[in-house]
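Internal ticket #5521
Category: modeling
Description: The requester needs a full-assembly model to guide mutagenesis choices. All entity lines are attached below as received. Residue total reported by intake: 520.
Assigned to: D.W.
Attached entities:
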Amino acid sequence: MLLLQAQLPEGGWTYVVSIVVVSLQVSVTAVGLSTLFSLPVALLIGFTDFPGKQLVTAVINTGMGFPSVVVGLVVLILLSNSGPLGDLNLAFTPQAMIVSQFVLATPVVTSISLSAVESVGQPVRDAAYAMGGTGTDVGFVVIKEARYGIVTAVLAGFGRAISEVGSILIVGGNIVFSDGQSYTRTLTTAITVEARQGRYEVGLVLGAVLLVLVLGVNWLGSWIRSRGRGRGTT
Amino acid sequence: MDQEPGPGTGDDVTLAAEAVSVGFDGQAVLREVSIEVDTGQVVTVVGPSGTGKTTLLRLLAGFRQPDAGTITWEGRDVWSLSDDERLAVRRRTSMVFQEPSLFNAPVLENVTYGLRVRQSWAERLRGRLRSLVGTRPTPASVETALETVGLADEADRNALSLSGGEAQRVAFARALAVDPDVMLLDEPTSNLDPRNTAVLEDAILRARDRGVGVVIATHDMNQAERVSDRVGFVFEGELVESGPPERIFDHPTDPRTRRFVDGELLYEPDDSDGVVPPPPSPPGGN
């Protein structure tokens, strides 16, 4: 513990806490926005038949494997001073990291949500309609029936965002203020810095915090899925 | 609609299909079929599987517009009405499918669904808040519907944990709870054991006695004989003949009806003798 205290950079435990806070702020915001975007898209695709639907679905699924450094590079080009969105002055800010994580999380959330929506059978939709439901009512029934899958999608998106390192390193710049407060440094980018500087104990502590967060999210997802299965059996 | 009498006002309403034709993928499924139902009357559409009975019920339920002919409510073509008017007409009917198609929720929530969608969003929100603090009363029509199908004690059970027979009874209660003028029942007992079948048939007759018009699609002639006021025999997408059950079953005039009543399998999977095979996968089954 003393060794760890000695290894902590300027700011001590405040440094660690601020990194955790920035990580959560960025990832939760990105996944929240991604969910707001992905859910209607998943419903739209799941409810309608249109030419090229399979292609669109394939593109979304492919998006789950986007290399994060490529996403970071593209977002940085767009947000840099010479880029088309340079006037927004978002490069090397938490907002840029949110944009980057949004791009990475959205295919995950959309794809899993789409699977969940499509798993709600036509008979259930027909029943909702035949009982006097409008299209909106039927949509809400589908969301409710697919709720466990949708929660899984959101948690999977969060897992993808919180454990991401490449793109946020590029667009965020891994910045810490001189008093040790993190500006754009997250758990993952901090671990790379601590490892490079030989402060392995600090890196391990940050790694443990990250692991606990990811494990907690996965456990929550498993628990919700098992709860859904349990309610559906005799 | 100019006037929308509420449920149970005693005003006769008529839901009718007038010379409706429907096809899927260029293949005729229904050809100029006419049928009507008044309140307090059970009309049964019998015929072999794959002859268009489900398609006819889905037309009556407003799932789609017929390719030709009209669906009328109180004499007005429902597809000439505005969206809001057509929704109001749809909400005076309810439907039970061959599969129960229940929601992953307690029985009570399933049975109250039809009432909830008839509420404004503000009313729904208030109801949801009341249920969170445990003070939301169960609507009388929901209690009556659950009692009618003998499941008043199962209100809190998850619907997906019910047996097939119980689930279909909940589906019937869900359709009955909205106090409809007309119920559309698509093979409601085809997957049920005799006991559950008897419970549902009793519930159908009790609904009729309360003034609900009922249209049943079934291939069970015994059931049709037990519960019907009128029977129509559909074969190859055509309404072959219709009339009181005793005439249809005891003195059919058309040889095809006689063959069906005699238990002969009329449907043949190829079209060598002109029998129209069922569509590849029409929405909702046969």
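Resolution: model delivered.
Comment from assignee: Confidence is low (pLDDT under 50) at residues 1-10, 269-286 of chain B.
Ticket closed.
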